[in-house]
Amino acid sequence: MAVGIFDSGLGGLTVLDAVQKRLPDVPFVYFADSAHAPYGVRDADDIYALTTAAVSRLFEAGCDLVILACNTASAAALRRMQEGWVPRDKRVLGVFVPLIEALTERSWGDNSPPREVAVKHVALFATPATVSSRAFQRELAFRAIGVDVEAQACGGVVDAIEDGDMILAEALVRSHVDALRRKMPSPDAAVLGCTHYPLMEDVFQDALGPEVRVYSQADLVAESLADYLGRHPGMLGPGAQGGYLTTGDPRRVSDGATRFLRRQIGFEAA
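Above: the chain's sequence. Below: its structure in token form.
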């Protein structure tokens, strides 16, 4: 009954932590493609190839349902995977839709036509690959009209967080917020479009100001997954054991993950 959680590195641990708290009886297998991180500077074909390889490994681990906790993979690879690669008895879901449903105040799974919503000016902070894909804007257009989105590619932030250099990460976040403000001086809301960014949520909020509502993904994805499994209990895969897999050096990744979540995490080689 295992569910797979995939990320290019450690950022998806923010999602894993939230879903484990929301669904404590479900075993989760986390896959970090640390040998190829970060994905945010790769092209779409490269991201697709790496993501399908990782998801295949999670299928082998007994996960019939895999969550792409990597926004870059969700943006650059998910639609292509769903259209022609995912087996009929498997499911691969991304992290954009729960976020957009919350932003547009829709209930989970609401597929009614797009309509006007309260939020009119949205700042999107994401990796360069996510920004260039325009996947967020595409998904938003399915659900809302009249929303202006200004995207800011936040180069360097993921690398700094993965390296544990939070001083550099904070400086980069503030620089990127300043750059966004020059393009959109008064956003109504800000979307943290990378699963690493919740670790810097307080910095984003401080830099943006209290009048801007900041949307982060982890808890929204956890609630959406709980709802999905409630409606599709058959998607709990045959795997009975949770665990942590990585393409990188298990010891180094384990040390980073332990620092990331502030609890002992042990990765094994994928």
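The chain has a mean pLDDT of 93.
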